[in-house]
């Protein structure tokens, strides 16, 4: 039997501590909540310079020009700017490649911009995505870095091409549910009923804006009690989906906000479990700026029925079928869903197998 003398017994806790340290470092990230990630002053100043240039170059009420754009296009048609926000490979690049090349009228009617976390090694997807990566900064969940990344995408797209009229924010887990022609016609079509209701040709942004959710109070106080006052009273605080489609005037409104709301939403959270700034900032800002100019619903379908740790349901290959695509398209709103998330990377092959016969066959 192994025994320790009284003179050696003080070594026991020391040895236990030494052997426990590696285990502690391994488990700490899983046990402890993520540390708040403040946006550094150099990053903030760099972004402010970009936002100022985008705001000055894009007055909110300037009509879309028909002159030659900065990317060399002479096509007078307005464009959709597809903004991909990712921290991993674009798993469905092949499917999106088909989406952009499938439409008979897609050429010259879209632009692509990718914000990829520079701290993560990402394999360039090639094809239509070649050279579409913008200068990016680190992103982390439960922090305002995701707001900053989305604003960076919007500002870059505003500056890059004055014909960008809609700005669709997507993730690497998003897939298209329709052909490009269908998406384009859905966004730019105005029904007689809409014209009669709003009396103008101004398009509306497709962004979810909710004001009666049970989670609202905890989300409002995520940075501390009364911290959001006086700029954001609780009655004006909103929540919504992280992914949206904004009109040009609303994209300008987002990048023009450099102090009023941003100075509040960029503060680190004290309650990480209620901290989802990217789901609060955009709905709150646009609700306060132009509530009537927004649909209050998103065109990206998400299944929250069995969410885990704030993540929605992830579709996997056994679930994929034509019936699932048809179901995901269905909406209780005026417009059908155009995109959907969240799909696991191994869904690519099954999706490609039904792309021509189902997804892009509207």
UniProtKB/TrEMBL annotation:
TM segment ranges: none
Any single GO CC term annotated in Swiss-Prot or TrEMBL for this entry: membrane
Keyword Glycosyltransferase: yes
Region (Disordered): 54-73
Cellular localisation: Membrane
UniProt cross-references to InterPro entries, sorted A to Z: BC10-like, Glyco_trans_14
Organism this protein belongs to: Actinidia chinensis var. chinensis
Name recorded for this polypeptide: Peroxisome proliferator-activated receptor gamma coactivator 1-beta like
Highest taxon, organism lineage: Eukaryota
Membrane topology: Single-pass type II membrane protein
Keywords linked to the UniProt accession: Glycoprotein, Glycosyltransferase, Membrane, Receptor, Transferase
GO molecular function (one): glycosyltransferase activity
């Amino acid at each position: 039997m192994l025994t320790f003398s009284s003179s050696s017994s003080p070594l026991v806790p020391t040895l236990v501590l030494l052997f426990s340290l590696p285990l502690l470092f391994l488990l700490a990230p899983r046990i402890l909540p993520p540390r708040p990630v403040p946006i550094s002053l150099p990053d903030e100043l760099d972004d402010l310079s970009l936002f100022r240039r985008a705001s000055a170059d894009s007055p909110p009420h300037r009509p879309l020009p028909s002159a030659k754009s900065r990317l060399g296009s002479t096509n007078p048609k307005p464009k959709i700017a597809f903004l991909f926000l990712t921290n991993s490979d674009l798993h469905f690049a092949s499917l999106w490649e088909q989406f952009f090349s499938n439409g008979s009228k897609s050429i010259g009617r879209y632009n692509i911009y990718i914000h990829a976390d520079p701290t993560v090694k990402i394999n360039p997807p090639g094809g239509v995505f070649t050279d579409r990566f913008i200068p990016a900064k680190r992103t982390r969940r439960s922090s305002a870095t995701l707001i900053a990344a989305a604003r960076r995408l919007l500002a870059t797209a505003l500056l890059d091409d004055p014909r960008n009229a809609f700005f669709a924010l997507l993730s690497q887990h998003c897939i298209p549910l329709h052909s490009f022609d269908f998406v384009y016609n859905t966004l730019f079509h105005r029904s007689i009923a809409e014209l009669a209701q709003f009396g103008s040709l101004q398009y509306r942004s497709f962004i979810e804006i909710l004001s009666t959710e049970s989670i609202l109070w905890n989300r409002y106080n995520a940075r501390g009690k009364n911290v959001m006052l006086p700029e954001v009273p609780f009655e004006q605080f909103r929540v919504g989906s992280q992914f949206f489609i904004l009109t040009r005037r609303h994209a300008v409104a987002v990048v023009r906000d450099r102090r009023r709301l941003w100075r509040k939403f960029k503060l680190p959270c004290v309650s990480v479990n209620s901290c989802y700034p990217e789901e609060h900032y955009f709905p709150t800002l646009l609700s306060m700026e132009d509530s009537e100019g927004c649909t209050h619903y998103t065109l990206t379908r998400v299944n929250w029925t069995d969410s885990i740790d704030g993540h929605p349901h992830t579709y996997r290959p056994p679930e994929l079928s034509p019936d699932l695509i048809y179901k995901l398209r269905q909406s209780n709103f005026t417009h059908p869903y155009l995109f959907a998330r969240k799909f696991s990377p191994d869904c690519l092959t099954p999706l490609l197998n039904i792309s021509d016969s189902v997804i892009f066959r509207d």
